[in-house]
Design a protein that fits this description.
single chain; 299 residues; mainly alpha
């Protein structure tokens, strides 16, 4: 006879075993990852370290001003100073925290809105689907950057407005993808069985549909992060994004652009930081898509 204690011991032993199995599968996947994926993961990890530990890694304060604007590279200022005399290395490090942090929060909000509405439209293929789809079509017909410029000029260029506006505009792309992949799942027998059992909408979305549409949505998260990241940088370059004295890579390019005429590559440093992170994320997304698609390398 199996006692309650025996069942508890078996359950407690199964949890660590399942955890070890997942870790071994993860390590096997990482071990077989191509060099491009490893390069992308290392770059992303380095950026995350800079963003998290910026106050401890930066040599000076984020908005600290020194009496020598446009100082050359040297021992005191490794990458020189900007037009106000702020240390460029410090601004680059804090720019990682601000630009990446805002892009991550915006992308998460975009996915929360777009994915919820997309799954809702796929489940209820009625007037709700038609209403949401036509509203998304209207929003997507307007160029995102121009629409964001207009809205930020109207409501102000605060960080909160920047996050909300870009997230809502970008959620239209997430809505289209999540609706498209969910339409192939909602017609499956197990979803219909859950409906007949009387399961609630939230339970069906969370337990039946989401696990079957996650791989393309995770890959899309990486791509959407790149687009949001570039949009935030572009808006800051145009003067309506992250406002000074907050460090941001887009505004740093604009503020120091005149140095290019004198052969100084300082303005290219924040531009290079933007490009490097974008390439790294795309490398990781490509590898993830390749693994989840079921394709195998030919040797």
């Amino acid at each position: 006879m199996t006692t309650v204690e025996d069942r508890q011991l078996r359950t407690d032993g199964a949890l660590p075993k399942a955890r070890r199995t997942r870790l071994s599968l993860l390590w096997r996947a990482l071990r077989t990852a191509p060099l491009s994926a490893w390069f992308g993961m290392i770059v992303i990890a380095a950026y995350m370290v800079l963003a998290i530990f910026a106050p401890w890694l930066a040599p000076y304060g984020e908005a600290q001003i020194f009496p020598e604007p446009y100082a050359p590279w040297g021992a005191q200022f490794v990458l020189g100073t900007d037009q106000l005399g702020r240390d460029m290395l410090t601004r680059l490090i804090y720019g990682a925290r601000n630009t990446i942090g805002i892009a991550v929060i915006t992308t998460l909000l975009s996915f929360a809105v777009g994915m919820a509405l997309g799954l809702l439209a796929a489940i209820y293929r009625s007037w709700i689907d038609q209403l949401l789809s036509r509203a998304v079509d209207v929003l997507m017909s307007i160029p995102l950057l121009i629409f964001a410029l207009m809205l930020l000029s109207t409501f102000g260029s605060s960080v909160l407005n920047l996050i909300i506006i870009i997230a809502l505009l970008d959620s239209t792309r997430v809505f289209r993808l999540s609706r498209a992949v969910a339409l192939n799942v909602v017609v499956m027998d197990f979803v219909e069985a859950a409906r007949l059992r009387g399961e609630r909408l939230g339970w069906i979305m969370r337990r039946e549909i989401l696990p079957n549409v996650m791989p393309p949505l995770i890959a899309e998260f990486g791509l959407r992060f790149c687009f949001v990241f570039l949009t935030v940088a572009a808006l800051s370059f145009l003067g309506v994004g992250i406002q000074p004295p907050t460090a941001d890579w887009g505004s740093m390019v604009r503020e120091n652009a005149t140095l290019i005429t004198y052969g100084d590559i300082t303005p290219l440093l924040p531009a290079g930081a933007i490009a490097l992170l974008t390439v790294a994320v795309n490398f990781v997304v490509d590898w993830f898509l390749h693994r989840t698609s079921g394709l195998k390398d030919e040797h």
